[in-house]
Amino acid sequence: MKEYSKDETWKIYKTLPQELQEAMFSEETADHIFKACERSDVNEVSKVAYYTGLVLLGLVLPADFQSVLQKEIGLPKKNAQDVAQEIQRFVFFPVRRYIQELHGEVAQEKPGRQITPASPGGAEKTAPANASPAQSPYHVQEKVKQEPIVEEEVKEQPPKEPKSEDPYHEPLE
After folding, report:
1. Of 45 and 112, which is predicted with more confidence?
2. CA separation for the pair 173, 171 (Å, rounded)
3. Which residue in 7, 95, 105, 151 has a CA-CA distance of 20 to 30 Å to 62?
4. What would the mean pLDDT of 99-127 be, rounded to a whole number?
């Protein structure tokens, strides 16, 4: 995997939406990374934070995050999976819309076309419609039309008369 200099990452950082900039340096993000590593017995917190930052910068796909942790840091599959899932949920999910925009996944693309992420300095590429999702980590799925839910009118019913009989069939006095 390519190593990025501070100058390269800083230039990219300046072009990010405000939400991603805030996520990059927020105390909350740091806490989530630390806790995810702690729960999974991962001692490489700074390296996990570095690769989390690369995802937020748009240089690594969120879908590739687990494999990057395995390959680049040397984490066992289970630990990488646990850390990646937790970071996906608490760090990437709240800003997923902005991450998707970085990778060219745009909702207005035609259904059936798969979008491959844009390279950091290049234009986005579109995969053919018959390409499998395994060939492209990001793709636009065709939206399924849902019929609107129509609520039925509830007819008011008169209150039920209480039964005079004892449910235990004991004589009433």
Report:
1. 45
2. 6
3. 7
4. 49
- DSSP notation for the chain: -----HHHHHHHHHHS-HHHHHHHH-HHHHHHHHHHHHHTT---HHHHHHHHHHHHHTSS-GGGHHHHIIIII---HHHHHHHHHHHIIIIIGGGHHHHHHHTT--TTSPTT-EEEPPPTTS--EEE-TTS-GGG-S--PPPPPP-PPP-PPPPPP-PPPPPP-S-TT-PPP-
Q: Which residue has the tokens 């005079």?
A: 164
Same domain, 114 and 46: no
Tokens of 142: 């065709």
Q: Which residue has the tokens 């805030």?
A: 22
Place of tokens 């990057």: 68
Are 110 and 84 members of one domain? no
Residue 131 in domain: yes
